[in-house]
Structures are given as structure tokens and as C-alpha cells.
Design a protein that fits this description.
- It is a single chain.
- By secondary structure, the protein is of the alpha/beta class.
- The protein folds into two domains: about 110 residues, Response regulator (Rossmann fold), CATH 3.40.50.2300; about 120 residues, 3-Layer(aba) Sandwich (Rossmann fold).
- Helix content is about 45%, strand content about 20%.
- It is built from ten helices and ten strands.
- The protein has a five-stranded parallel sheet, sandwiched between helices. Strands 7-6-8-9-10 form a five-stranded parallel sheet, with helices on both faces.
- Helix 8 packs parallel to helix 9.
Length: about 250
């Protein structure tokens, strides 16, 4: 289990995270403002620092910079409640290991902790480092099914229920492959594919679609930057083969 330094001003957030982390077996030290957080970081050398980026007057970003400047290998999970992506970008540029947007679910925190604290054997079934796959679909049962299948195949899996949420996930942690549905509410898959192709050229993209009598969405997805496409319904093995190919291409 990890030794965790938790730095946040919000009493309720501190209480909830402290209880959740201790229940998972971690040792937790609490700080409520920047100076105390910095002193405890220097004194305790935690294995993981969870830092609210919403500390008063950009103190959270300043503290992240100070931590990374002092210890480039420090593991820091940033928490942000900002409505814009500025804190995301600043935190990632400063080297935050993971950034979570508040409010988040306990499962999101648990997944972030597992990401920054990989087990002794963090390789996939073929012996290569575990690849990270983001699944974007507005149907929860589809997300749950694909997560289970991909994790069973040895991949680390993240989820998003819209294109906008998918882009936030891409900004928050390293992603190797994005699997996205095309027809979704909010930002649809086609728009997200275009953004990923322009701004994240190293990410491999697999688009899936139920098709239409009027438009070949998969062909449009390829024109916008998707590396592979699958028409619904497809066999699960087809998807797993496509992911394996794209992980291989990235490698």
C-alpha cells in the first residue's frame, strides 16, 4: 500500500478522500493549504501526492511546479474543479501523473491510483508493457462490456460517455488507443476524431458505427483520421484484433 499526501482546502473533500484511501489500506497525511503541503512533502517524501489544483490564487499549480522542480520523479495526482481546460493543460505541462476532474467517482480515483502504482508485473499477456485504451460510447452497457473484454485481454482501460469527456481523458493521462462510437450526444465521434488527429497524432483511433442508409460514417471517420473502423454488429474478436494491430503500429 502507498503513503499518500493529500492536499486540499475543502474539508468535505479531505474527509471523504481520507476515509476512502484509508479503507483501501493506504497511509494518509493531510494538508489544508500550500505551505503546510510543501512542508509535509519535504518531510514525508510520500509515494503519491494527491493535490487539489483549486487552492486559492493558483497556489495548487504553484505547488505542483515546486514539487516537480524538486523531485522530477514524484508521483502527483491533480484534482481540478475548473470549468475550463486551462488547469488540465497547465497540470499536464508541469508533469502531473494523472488529472481528475471534480466531481469524480471512487472508481475513478481507484483507477488513477492503480495507474500510478502499477503492480510488479505490469505487462500484458504478450510480455509487452500494458497498453492504455480509452473507450468512448454514450451507452453504459457497451462501455461495461468493452471494459471487461479489454481488461481480460490485458489492457488498461479508461471510459468516457461523450466526445468532450473523451478529450478530457486524453488530456488527463497517456492513452495509446481510442475506441470511439461515432453517433453520440454532446461532441460526436467524428468531431473528436478530427481533434485527436490534429492534436494527438501518436494516439491510434478505432471508430465503430451502426451505419446509416444515407451516409457511410466509417468512410468519413477514416478521412478524418481514424486508423481502423468497424461496422456494428461486429464480433468481439474483431475488435480485440484491431486493438492489437494498433498497439503494434504504435510500438
Amino acid at each position: 500500500m502507498a503513503t499518500i499526501l493529500l492536499i486540499a482546502e475543502e474539508a468535505i473533500l479531505l474527509e471523504q478522500l481520507n476515509a476512502a484511501l484509508r479503507q483501501l489500506g493506504h497511509t494518509v497525511t493531510l494538508a489544508t493549504e500550500e505551505q503546510m503541503g510543501w512542508m509535509l512533502f519535504e518531510a514525508t517524501h510520500p509515494s503519491i501526492t494527491i493535490l487539489s489544483l483549486d487552492l486559492a490564487e493558483t497556489a495548487g499549480i504553484s505547488l505542483l511546479w515546486k514539487i516537480r522542480a524538486t523531485d522530477p520523479e514524484a508521483v502527483v495526482i491533480g484534482l481540478t474543479g475548473a470549468e475550463t481546460d486551462e488547469q488540465y493543460r497547465a497540470a499536464r505541462e508541469l508533469g502531473a501523473s494523472v488529472v481528475l476532474q471534480k466531481p469524480f467517482m471512487p472508481a475513478d480515483l481507484d483507477q488513477a491510483l492503480r495507474q500510478v502504482s502499477p503492480p510488479a508485473d505490469s505487462s500484458g499477456p504478450s510480455g509487452y508493457p500494458m497498453a492504455s485504451v480509452l473507450v468512448v460510447d454514450d451507452e453504459v452497457p457497451v462501455l461495461q462490456f468493452l471494459r471487461k473484454a479489454l481488461e481480460g485481454a490485458g489492457y488498461q482501460v479508461w471510459e468516457a460517455q461523450s466526445g468532450n469527456e473523451g478529450l478530457r481523458q486524453v488530456c488527463a493521462q497517456p492513452i495509446d488507443v481510442v475506441i470511439t462510437d461515432i453517433l453520440m450526444s454532446d461532441m460526436d465521434g467524428l468531431e473528436m476524431i478530427g481533434v485527436l488527429h490534429r492534436n494527438f497524432p501518436n494516439i491510434r483511433i478505432i471508430a465503430i458505427s451502426g451505419g446509416s442508409r444515407y451516409l457511410d460514417y466509417c468512410s468519413v471517420a477514416k478521412m478524418l483520421g481514424a486508423h481502423e473502423t468497424l461496422n456494428k454488429p461486429f464480433e468481439l474478436q474483431q475488435l480485440l484484433d484491431a486493438v492489437a494491430r494498433q498497439v503494434g503500429e504504435k510500438s
